[in-house]
Design goal:
By secondary structure, this protein is mainly beta. The chain is built from no helices and eleven strands. Strands 2, 4, 5, 6, 9, 10 and 11 form a seven-stranded mixed β-sheet that branches. A hairpin with a 4-residue loop joins strand 7 and strand 8. The radius of gyration is 13 Å and the shape is globular. The protein starts with a strand and ends with a strand.
């Protein structure tokens, strides 16, 4: 199991940018696929982005493709989500997640989760 702590959320105007960070603890961080999900009020948690343990496989939801960038820093045990050109519909609680093995963009039970960080985009 890996412990995850997100940071970097906040209030931003539409068109602005934020960078989320997720610090992971555990000696096997490098072997975990890492994810960002989000959940807006009244909606189900949805996949946003994922990066494989090697960093060579990167996946995005269509709604964020071209605007968001996921990356990882093995030396810092941290995964990032750079969010540009933010829209009001990006408003949600953003969760970091981790899973061993290959990337699986669906499913919740097979992942470890952080506590989430709120992102609010004002129009």
């Amino acid at each position: 199991q890996v412990q995850l702590v997100e940071s970097g959320g906040g209030l931003v105007q539409a068109g602005g940018s934020l960078r989320l960070s997720c610090a992971a603890s555990g000696r096997t961080f490098s072997s975990y696929a890492m994810y960002w999900f989000r959940q807006a009020p009244g909606k189900e948690r949805e996949f946003v982005a994922a990066i494989s343990w090697r960093g060579t496989g990167i996946y995005y939801a269509d709604s964020v493709k071209g605007r968001f960038t996921i990356s990882r820093d093995g030396a810092k045990n941290t995964v990032y989500l750079q969010m540009n050109s933010l829209k009001s519909e990006d408003t949600a609680v953003y969760y970091c997640a981790a899973s061993s093995g290959p990337v699986r963009t669906s499913g919740y039970q097979d992942k470890d989760w952080g506590q989430g960080t709120q992102v609010t985009v004002s129009s």
